[in-house]
Amino acid sequence: MKKLGSLLAILLIVSGCSEADRYNFKGSGDNWDVFYTVDATSQDSKEATGKIVYTGEEPPPETIIYSIESTAGASSGNVSVDEGEVLVGKSACEGCAVIQQDEQLDVEIKWDGQVEEFALTTEQ
């Protein structure tokens, strides 16, 4: 009987752990490609990561200031560019608004006196 109770408890715990909904956003400007992944772990919690890739013809800048905005909030930073790429660190929140799959994210990248703005979307 104890084994059955333990098995039921484990099954209950495992069934409560569902896979997160993953949304892959991407977009391109004249000089940059941005890839941004959102894992909606529940209705009010998420984890997000991303990558910004320089595609321009000039040598890549040493630093950029970026902002990725949605109706659920923003991710931004003043970061170094390493071999033409920037990794947008993992951000997470609980009890927050969550980015939805059909949402459009607005990107702004500033570098060396230049500014580029474009949108990120998911393929549906």
Q: What would you say this structure looks like, in words?
A:
This protein has a single domain, classed as Immunoglobulin-like (Sandwich), CATH 2.60.40. It is built from 1 helix and 8 strands. The chain has one helix at residues 2-16, and strands at 21-28, 32-42, 45-54, 63-70, 73-80, 85-94, 105-111, 114-120. The strands form 2 sheets. The chain has a 4-stranded antiparallel sheet with strand order 1-2-3-6, with no helix packed on it. It starts with a helix and ends with a strand. Mean pLDDT is 84; it is low at 3-18.
H-E order: HEEEEEEEE
The biggest beta sheet is recorded as: 4 strands, antiparallel
* CATH fold group: Immunoglobulin-like
Strand content: over 45%
Q: What labels would you give this structure?
A:
124 residues, Immunoglobulin-like, four-stranded antiparallel beta sheet, signal, 8 strands, mainly beta, disordered N terminus, elongated, Lipoprotein
Topology:
Layout: H1 2-16, E1 21-28, E2 32-42, E3 45-54, E4 63-70, E5 73-80, E6 85-94, E7 105-111, E8 114-120
Antiparallel strand pairs: 1-2, 2-3, 3-6, 4-5, 4-7, 7-8
Q: Can you give me a brief rundown of this structure?
A:
The protein has 124 residues and is mainly beta. The protein has one helix spanning 2-16; strands at 21-28, 32-42, 45-54, 63-70, 73-80, 85-94, 105-111, 114-120.
